[in-house]
Amino acid sequence: MRALNLFNSPSLSKQTERELIADHEAEIGVLLPVLGPLFGFGVILFSVWDLLIDPLYASTALLIRIGLVLLGSIAYLPTALRWTATQRCGYIYLTHASAIIICEYILKNGFLYGLAGVSACVFTVSMITFRIRTFFLVLFFPTLIFIFLTAIGTPLLTFINGLMLYCFSVFLACILMLVMRSLRRKAVLLEKELLHISRHDSLTGACNRRYLTELAEREIALTERHGRPMAIAMLDIDHFKLVNDTYGHDVGDEVIKLCVKTCVSELREIDHFGRIGGEEFVCILPETTRDEALLCAERLRLSIEALCVETPQGKIRFTISIGVALLDPNHTDWSALLKAADEALYQVKGRGRNRVLLWEATPVHD
Ligand code: GH3
Ligand code: MG
Ligand code: MG
């Protein structure tokens, strides 16, 4: 049963699947200049074996091997043809595998000695792609050549025996590809999950401080480059200690979660919301002017004020205080911006809480 899990490939979103294919393509692109020549070298090296089994035609076989390997070698490195790495692999496989198959045909008892080699080559296709269609497409022409030459070059029983062994190899190689695809997909999902965990707060799902800093620095760079406005708002739940002390830590957690959920639902897709402390949060508001930032902060404040949390001990209402700061010549980096919003927040707390305040040089206005 556990073995079946290997084929049970987790499904990825279209975007993730595209990323996975692109990553795989990039890896193949890196490996091809090394593995391609190795494959070619192996195909030519087997001329020594040709010499042992049929010295009469060994030189012809050598010429065929060298010719087809040279023809395929143009795809070892990226070419002006702009082929993808998978297409280059397919072309290399076609030329190199054909060299082996044709040599088997012209050598005496070639298929008897070389069948294992042809069947083994099929397994290299498992590495080229994760797509079943591409897998069979790459194998299509070499397989046709193999079937045709074996049919005309060997007795019926040898042909059937060769075909069965070849088909069995294709079947196993296909399974190998599916297993590798499944493992790769699971690895991608795990990687995404780990990345999410490392970037988000486990209680609320909001961005954590480190990720928020990363996002903020990116937004500040973009904002400065395009000369656009940007603002941040720092939020803090008022008298939250009292909630914990009165209703318990669990209810406090629920309040924090609800606060995050409500704020996130009030923000735009392009905004970022992060938890930077116990009950302290920051919204990054790109493309936002002074007035828009104040309106947005006020909207958040009102939505929180309107909430009512049902608990066994009764209904709880809570409020937040918000300090707003703008990216301007006074605050040109993240820490300066954060400090300004924090100062404004500190002032709101002193003025009675449940308010929005914009940081300004002096004096500070409501
Ligand atoms: P103020 O209006 O001045 O902000 O007062 P406050 O009581 O909200 O501020 P204070 O910073 O004194 O209290 C914050 C409390 O939040 C203290 C801490 O125990 C609590 N806290 C921090 N993180 C969590 C958490 O994850 N869950 C819960 N339930 N409480 C938390
Ligand atoms: Mg507080
Ligand atoms: Mg606080």
Question: How would you describe this structure to a colleague?
Answer:
With 366 residues, the chain is of the alpha+beta class. The chain has 2 domains: 9-197, no CATH class; 209-358, Reverse transcriptase/Diguanylate cyclase domain (Alpha-Beta Plaits), CATH 3.30.70.270. The chain has helices spanning 2-7, 14-45, 47-53, 58-73, 85-106, 110-121, 125-128, 132-153, 156-199, 209-226, 240-247, 249-266, 290-305, 334-350, and strands spanning 230-237, 272-275, 280-286, 309-311, 314-316, 320-326, 356-358. The protein binds 3'-deoxy-guanosine-5'-triphosphate and magnesium ion (2 copies). The site of one magnesium ion (MG) has 5 residues, from β1. The site of one magnesium ion has 4 residues, from loops.
Spatial ordering of strands, largest sheet: 2-3-1-6-7
Element-by-element helix/strand order: HHHHHHHHHHEHHEEHEEEHE
> What does the largest sheet look like?
5 strands, mixed
How many whole angstroms does the radius of gyration measure? 33 Å
Helix content: 55-70%
Assembly level: single chain
Low-pLDDT parts are: none
Mean pLDDT: 92
